[in-house]
Write a structure and sequence with these properties.
Layout (H helix, E strand, L loop, with lengths): L5 E6 L5 H14 L2 E6 L9 H8 L4 E2 L11 H8 L2 E7 L1 H8 L6 H8 L4 E5 L3 H5 L1 H12 L3 E2 L3 E4 L5 E5 L3 H12 L9 E6 L4 E2 L5 E2 L6 H12 L3 E6 L11 E4 L3 H11 L5 E4 L6 E3 L19 E3 L3 H8 L5 E8 L3 H12 L3 E6 L11 E8 L4 E8 H21 L2
Parallel strand pairs: 1-2, 1-4, 2-3, 4-5, 5-6, 9-12, 9-14, 12-13, 14-17, 17-18
Antiparallel strand pairs: 7-8, 10-11, 15-16, 18-19, 19-20
Length: 405
């Protein structure tokens, strides 16, 4: 879906160029074929080698750059592109493009481009608000260039105001929306849970698990890319929510239960990737528990509600319910029991003792086990790729549900 989409990424001379490296990495991981063009000033902030390593493509610099197959670089990079993105765009590059100046490789690509051109300004607040800059932005809009508004916040120069480089995740989402038509999940609502819940012992300590939330966030991101209406309910995770989704943060298992049970009836597909604590302290202390060297601490635990089981009891025939099971042994037996006990349509199980398949990794090795007993083994792959395969399976089950009605 994305591998054949060619993005030309222009990087100009701004301190925000280092964030362009994050953007290039994110676009590449998402699946785009990213080709970076750097101005001379841009190279003073980040080296071309950085972008080459991130995109696995040659980085184009200077007035002509390297050529292949006797192609003229600026024409080839303009004609092949599904989208040209300039991120960051300085006041200088805005003025050049607004007035048709093409004096380096990047500006000649822009002049020759027949695809959409997305410009992401980043500069000092006073430069951004300068009447000349604002006039150039207005002219660029009149010329049908796409402008992503600069953010507001603390700037590298030490001032506060508009001119901040948009977050790479926001730019990536904008690029996806510009390049891709409505995906195969258009019109389908997906509820996803992620992260590891925290059950307080006292105001300082809590019981939790090693879930990073990466799998659930990858599912939310992939579903959004494919056009789904996504809600992500997540326990604490050191991750930024994907753009374009409804995000509901929770902490405890009880909070997740309330959030999910309130909204799940309206969703077509429910994917429970969260690691919800099975138990919680029965009587959390209202003050910090002090250490007493003469005594051990005994904590009474009480069972949390099994959210997945509660959903399974009342889910509608046209809803698809997907569960997760992180195991250390007896994967198949445990997974099949959960399918029956919790009325699941599909369960994703993995052996967390296998390298690359445990917690807090960017990869996973899983088995997809269906209600009818079918098993699909997925080898070691990036969690975003795993998410895509899980969504493929859930979409097929969703279509089968509606065909049977």
């Amino acid at each position: 879906m994305l591998a054949d989409k060619f993005v030309t990424l222009g990087v100009t001379g701004s301190i925000a160029a280092f964030k362009a490296a994050s953007l290039a990495s994110l676009l590449t991981k998402t699946g785009f074929d990213v080709h970076v063009v750097m101005t001379d000033a841009g190279q003073k902030f980040v080296t071309p080698l950085t972008f080459q390593a991130l995109t696995k493509n040659h980085v184009h610099t200077g007035s002509f750059g390297g050529s292949s197959n006797f192609q003229i670089p600026h024409i080839a990079l303009a004609q092949k592109a599904d989208l040209v993105v300039i991120a960051p765009a300085t006041a200088n590059i805005l003025g050049k493009i607004a007035h048709g100046i093409a004096d380096d490789l990047l500006t000649t690509i822009v002049m020759a481009a027949t695809c959409p051109v997305l410009i992401c300004p980043a500069m000092n607040v006073h430069m951004y608000n300068n009447p000349a800059t604002q006039a150039n932005l207005a002219r660029l809009k009149e010329l049908n260039y796409l402008i992503m508004e600069a953010g507001t916040g603390y700037l590298a120069c030490g001032e506060h105001g508009q001119g901040r480089f948009p977050e790479p995740e926001m730019i990536c989402q904008q690029i996806i929306q510009l390049i891709l038509p409505a995906g195969d999940f258009k019109g389908i609502s997906v509820l996803i849970t992620a992260g590891g819940t925290r059950e307080p012992l006292d105001p300082v300590r809590f019981i939790s698990n090693r879930s990073s939330g990466k799998m659930g966030f990858a599912l939310a991101r992939s579903a959004a890319i494919r056009g789904a209406d996504v809600t992500l309910v997540s326990a604490p995770a050191n991750l930024s929510p994907p753009p374009g989704i409804n995000y509901i943060p929770v902490v405890t298992a009880a909070e997740m239960q309330r959030a999910v049970m309130d909204i799940f009836p309206k969703y077509d597909i429910v994917i429970k990737a969260a690691a919800v604590a099975d138990f919680r302290p029965a009587k959390p202390s209202k003050s910090k528990i002090k250490k007493d060297s003469n005594n051990n601490l005994t904590i009474e635990l009480e069972k949390n509600t099994d959210i997945l089981m509660e959903i399974g009891k009342i889910k509608k025939p046209n809803q698809v319910l997907v569960g997760f099971a992180a195991e250390t042994e007896n994967l198949l037996e445990s997974a099949r029991q959960k399918i029956e006990q919790k009325n699941l349509d599909l369960i994703v199980t993995n052996d967390i003792t296998v390298p690359g398949a445990g917690f807090d990794t960017d990869t996973n090795i899983v088995k997809l086990i269906y209600r009818d007993g079918e098993i699909t083994d997925l080898p070691l792959m990036d969690k975003l790729d795993v998410a895509g395969r899980i969504l493929d399976a859930a979409l097929l089950l969703h279509r089968q549900c509606h065909e049977q009605q």
